[in-house]
Amino acid sequence: xxxxRASQFTSFIVMDVMAKVEELERRGEHIxxxxxxxxxxxxxxxxxxxxxxxxxxxKTRYTHAxxxxxxxxxxxxxxxxxxxxxxxxxxxxxxxxxxxxxxxAMLAMLDSGDxxxxxNPRYPCYQNFILAAGGAMKEIRxxxxxxxxxxxxxxxxxxxxxxKAILINSPxxxxxxxxxxxxxxxxxxxxxxxILSDEIYSGLSYDGKAHSILEFTDRxxxxxxxxxxxxxxxxxxxxxxxxxxxxxxxxxxxQNFMISANGFIQWAGIAALTKAGDDVARMVQIYDExxxxxxxxxxxxxxxxxxxxxxxxxxxxxxxxxxxxxxxEAFRIxxxxxxxxxxxxxxxxxxxxxLRFSYATxxxxxxxxxxxxxxxxxxxx
Length: 381
Ligand code: PMP
What we know:
The chain is an alpha/beta fold. The chain folds into 2 domains: 4-41 and 278-380, Aspartate Aminotransferase, domain 1 (Alpha-Beta Complex); 45-276, Aspartate Aminotransferase, domain 2. It is built from 13 helices and 12 strands. Helix 6 links the parallel strand 3 and strand 4. Helix 5 packs across helix 9 (247-257). The chain is globular, with a radius of gyration of 21 Å. The termini are far apart. The mean pLDDT is 96.
């Protein structure tokens, strides 16, 4: 029998869209991928070379449970340089992606029935991490006209003695919105619960820097990783920064459940943080060109962009003038227009009527994909 808990896990709809796309491709159809949330760039050579070098030096063993000290120090140096905050290596856990550290953060802070505040819409996996740790998600509706940001008074209304954390994500998947300093400061003022800040798209911002919650409070857990900024999704490398008091428990959790992250890949992680700056700058510039182009085209077609997204590589576009059921529409666009897109409802009821477009694909693909979409929309009028 499948456990009650496991049967409550929700599916990640974008993966269903990708499965549909694959099925069409197997039949010989040519599909443009605007549903995927992973960089189309190859991993920068300086990073790959470091992994090869580490392999040739037999860096193929377990490492310290929290991660290689050299990598954890490099992460501390990175947060110092980027955000002016001082953290120490005993506050860092390196694991195989940010996904596992999200689970470990929940395991470390939640007792059965404890609550985590999340926005609606949001990254769809969050609720399942909370559920896996026996916690409960407390959803707060956010609105497109306000850049899908929490209203502090709504947070206040939803706080209870069981609230353990408020989850934020800036730059955000799916909205592409970057929180301002003032918005972060307002969230940091809630000094009861921890702030759980998913900063995996940090560095991918196109109108000034994205700030870290650590600039405003140290009652925070920060999730970050290498998948997006360094085009390293398949390498599986991410990390968690946590308050010092959690050091021993984090070490215990990781020893038991993972032992350690991959040795030679952690060496490559050091190269990413210290040597890949030029590669990142080049990718950021290209993403920004794509972003501007995509926004202009989507607006021209009649999609509404309430607040301009300036981060990550997504646009969450309001298509309520064309459709109401984003799930049905996303599959129809995939099948008829041959363009993969993600339905807004994947991110919660607050995303209904929206579609998420990813610009982590070439300008050529974006142009062709948007041409197809435009033709499709015209044919429906
Ligand atoms: N958080 C957000 C907001 C994401 O979009 C993703 C990847 N789609 C992750 C976390 C997980 O990333 P990874 O496990 O590859 O580090």
